[in-house]
Amino acid sequence: VHGVPPSLSAKVVGSFAYLTVRDRMPTILTRVIDTIHRNKNKFFEEYGEEGIQAEKQTISLLSKMRNELLTDKPLLELTDSLQDTESWNQYLQRQQKQQGDQDSVSWFKSPWLYVECYMYRRVQEALWLNPPISDYDVFNEGKTQSFFESQQAMMTLCTYVEGLNKNMEGLSKNQLLEHFNKLLQVSLWGNKCDLSISAGQDNSQKTSPIDSLDSLQPFILVNDSNRVWSALISPQRPGQSKETALVRVDIVLDNSGFELFTDLVLADFLVSSRLAHEIHFHGKSFPWFVSDVTANDFQWTIRQTTAANHKWMSKSGVQWMSHLKDGAWSYHDHPFWTQPHEFCDMEADAPDLYATLQGADLVLFKGDLNYRKLTGDREWDHTASFHTALRGFGPAPLCSLRTLKANVQVGLQPGQGERLGSQDPEWMTSGKYAVVQFDNAKSE
Ligand code: F6P
Ligand code: MG
């Protein structure tokens, strides 16, 4: 039996983890500080002198953290008292025990996944310690902007959907499959548009999401979409028979903006084609990795879409709204999604969430961070199987839709990784490549 490989870490000088901790994370923090400062007047208008005090305090806490990061200080316990504070502090204590030395659990010496999650939780701590502005979403401006900058691409997509819906009843199974594959790929490539990899800079969709699919095809390194399709058309949940099958698909969301839009389009298609009767969306309970979807972003995006100045786009929005009203769609969040755990720990650490996911026939995990958590963000050989890297995680048949933005990739053919590496040294981190990677724990 092979051991579990070590976690990616900024310890490895020059690695992507190292560059992220050294460059991208401080840049993100600087932007956060700047955003809070720019909104000083708004806080004053809303909360008077208290708002100004809160702004100052928050900035001072954040600058202090930035400094800790830049000088590789030990990670500190959280000092707020929220639902998840205890579990974060226990996690830190466990790390310290494992390392046997308090100081070695520091920004550059700890697992990258943990450190990066921790930074976003500390941003939240700084806000929460300053009640007047504790609900302020420091990433809201960027998310809103990236939504508007992708408008053209969204309209194109909605026009496609309109054409599809008009003919839905007359589609053969093969045609349905073809549309499914297209919308799955649109949602896959939607993951390019995240604001963490760009350290907060504009990263919106500028080209037609449908027209570019053919040329993007060669960049999908693993494509298990046929297995995803099978999971939909012959669900295997206990107690399901083929005739009465009510298929539930869970989508573990990643980023707001264009990516969320593509997820909603896919979810709408699944429901209107009756491939699924119910979609559960899972989002984050506080702002996370710059562009991740919160409840607020989710509602806002749907409302904006209903109000779009484009016939088919607003029609889509109205349709989505009605899915929410009639219960075909629902939005959920859980503290586990904003913790640093690998997903193989979910069953033990968040049994309620694990049980919830077991009610799905298919779980789609969007994006890079989810992939890192699925595989534990570890130095796996590229030829290790996805199933092995999941280390027993499998509440339901699952699929990762991910563009590559971190140094972890499993399930490749022998030699494939080496070949890619020699053609394009940045293949794992540029977001240029993608995978549609499926696993069904039960069938393996
Ligand atoms: O900051 C790096 C990172 O964690 C990368 O792994 C990835 O580029 C990004 O943040 C998050 O990506 P995604 O939004 O696809 O989860
Ligand atoms: Mg993200």
UniProtKB/TrEMBL annotation:
Which family, according to UniProt?
Belongs to the damage-control phosphatase family. Sugar phosphate phosphatase III subfamily.
Q: Quote a single Gene Ontology cellular component term.
A: nucleus
Question: Reaction catalysed by this chain?
Answer: L-glutamyl-[protein] + S-adenosyl-L-methionine = [protein]-L-glutamate 5-O-methyl ester + S-adenosyl-L-homocysteine; beta-D-fructose 6-phosphate = dihydroxyacetone + D-glyceraldehyde 3-phosphate; beta-D-fructose 1-phosphate + H2O = D-fructose + phosphate
Every copy of the Damage-control phosphatase ARMT1-like metal-binding domain together lies at: 20-420
One Gene Ontology BP term is: methylation
Q: What is known of its domains?
A: Subfamily III proteins have a conserved RTxK motif about 40-50 residues from the C-terminus; the threonine may be replaced by serine or cysteine.
Cofactor(s) listed in the protein's UniProt record: Mn(2+); Ni(2+)
Per the UniProt record, the source organism is Gasterosteus aculeatus aculeatus
The identity of this protein, by name, is Sugar phosphate phosphatase
Q: Which InterPro entries match?
A: ARMT-1-like_metal-bd_sf, ARMT1, ARMT1-like_metal-bd
PANTHER family tied to this protein:
DAMAGE-CONTROL PHOSPHATASE ARMT1 (PTHR12260:SF6)
Q: Name one GO molecular function term.
A: metal ion binding
Which EC number(s) are documented for this chain? 2.1.1.-, 3.1.3.-
- Keyword terms, alphabetized: Hydrolase, Manganese, Metal-binding, Methyltransferase, Nickel, S-adenosyl-L-methionine, Transferase
Q: Describe the function of this protein.
A: Metal-dependent phosphatase that shows phosphatase activity against several substrates, including fructose-1-phosphate and fructose-6-phosphate. Its preference for fructose-1-phosphate, a strong glycating agent that causes DNA damage rather than a canonical yeast metabolite, suggests a damage-control function in hexose phosphate metabolism. Has also been shown to have O-methyltransferase activity that methylates glutamate residues of target proteins to form gamma-glutamyl methyl ester residues. Possibly methylates PCNA, suggesting it is involved in the DNA damage response.
